[in-house]
Amino acid sequence: MLLRRGDGVLVPLDIRRWREPAGGGDLGVLRRCTGSVLDVGCGPGRIVRALASSGRNAMGIDVCPSAVAHTISWGAHAVVRSVFEHVPREGAWATALLLDGNVGIGGDVAGLLRRVASIVRPGGLLLAEAAPDDVDERHLVQVVDALGRSAPFTWASAGAAALARHGRSTGWTPTEEWTSAGRVFLALRRTAAGGAAPARPSAARPPGPRAAVSWTCPWPPGAVRAT
Ligand SMILES: C[S@@+](CC[C@H](N)C(=O)[O-])C[C@H]1O[C@@H](n2cnc3c(N)ncnc32)[C@H](O)[C@@H]1O
Fold first, then answer.
1. CB contact at 8 A, 37 and 93
2. Which atom of ligand 1 has the smallest separation from the CA of 206?
């Protein structure tokens, strides 16, 4: 399964790793989680499952019902929800996660970080995975598999420097950067005042065209609609 960018570049999606138990670079993320943890774009739930099995208070959100069903089948807690809609315990989460390219959700990294700042509590933590390259990009993309292509939607990509910069402008202080198993991660601490929260989260939409919120479920593989 691939992400096909508007400029023709094909980016492989690591679906196999997402479906496996947490391991490799995930472990450093799991170690750094504190308090209650919200995994934004949890997919089939390997991180929520790992946290739950070690007795942590964790929940995943994802727009893809089959991914959430998979997470729940592992005995972990998850709800079908967009990060741009109201989430349970909004403003109280101690840690939020944006892994596996999920800083790209909505196609606007700063908009997403501002939104996540309104979901965690003041002083809360964001553990985010950066792109391995020094990029700060936004693309119209399609998920492509053997059956066809999804509708186009907007996705973003940010390397560590860009992610730190977007964080600083949206109510976060970068506190740590580390690399593990070829993956690059940042820890950011929400400043006491936090980011500028949207006035009505339940009605909030990311900036840009409406296609920005569209993501065709890649779970199970083969679920991409032909267009
Ligand atoms: C790159 S995959 C991440 C995989 C996931 N972290 C895992 O371990 O399987 C992106 C995920 O974000 C979800 N997603 C896309 N837009 C979203 C949104 N607005 N709110 C919440 N989840 C979203 C997708 O359904 C997909 O599961």
1. yes
2. 19
Q: Where are the domains of the chain?
A: 2-191
Reported confidence tier of residue 215, pLDDT bands at 50, 70, 90: low
Pick 146 or 52 by higher pLDDT.
52
Domain spanning 2-191: which superfamily? Vaccinia Virus protein VP39 (3.40.50.150)
In a mutational test of the pocket of ligand 1, which residue from 100, 116, 129, 150 has the highest number of ligand atoms less than 8 Å from its CB? 100
46-73 burial string, b = 16+ CB within 10 Å, else e? bbbbbbbeeebebbbbbbbeebbebbbe
Report d(CA 168, CA 164) in Å as an integer: 6
